[in-house]
Amino acid sequence: MPAQPLDDTTLRELVADATAAPSMHNAQPWRFRYRQATRTPTLRAEFGREMPEADPSTRAVHVGCGAALLNLRVSASHRGLDAVTTLLPVPADPAVAATVRLAECSGVPGEPADAALAALHPAIRNRHTSRAPFADRVVPDDVRTRLVDAALVEGADFAFLPPEHLEAVLVLIREAEGFGLSDPAREAEQRYWTRDTEAQAPVDGIPDYAFGPTDISGRAVHRDFAGTDVVPGRARALFESRPQLALLRTVRDRPADWLRAGQAL
Fold this sequence. Notes:
Layout: H1 8-18, E1 30-35, E2 40-45, H2 59-78, E3 81-87, E4 96-104, H3 115-118, H4 121-126, H5 141-153, E5 157-160, H6 163-182, H7 184-192, E6 194-195, E7 206-207, E8 214-215, E9 236-237, E10 246-249, H8 255-264
Parallel strand pairs: 6-7, 8-9
Antiparallel strand pairs: 1-2, 2-4, 3-4, 5-10
Helix pairs in contact: 1-2, 2-8
């Protein structure tokens, strides 16, 4: 017997959860299409939202699409649906990032299809990017282990930087951010993806209230979306002295790997 198409309410909820994912500059570089006959949402990369200055390879576009794909899988499992995912299923059309065939769970009715994924569902709406100072408290070993294990399930490696490598990476980040500020094309691209919330409607991009405070010490390693502009009344704060940075890595560096990294992220 052919599967029944999903109702409009369920589809809207699935896509709303998927599009709550993070993406570079909050560009939201994705589009979803649904084929009723096979109960298959297709995730397409919106290359019109790419950033040729900051992301010339479109790696970040794919990472964002991967994050949206993971959210879709979480949402499906929460609703008792199995999600059979295929990455880059159409070689002739690289914009097709993934297909997700949805089927009724073969287990106990009403139970989530994947309990580990379903347990993440409340986090979809709680997740947000923070550009405020973090505590200097060390992330506990058991939490680090869980992060490593979660990334491994999605085909990626997650590792905290050891002290001997941390300072070298911090230097690279500061040099890269300084280069970006001195490059007019990069700064113009970043300014395009930011907005003044008093003058512009809340759509995509980074709102000025989410820029976070400036660092009193001048050593913070997060990206400053104000660029060379001055934001009136912006707060100042002292950031953590030893940021806890981690690397998320894949064996190869191709679009399918970027999608896996996005899901692990």
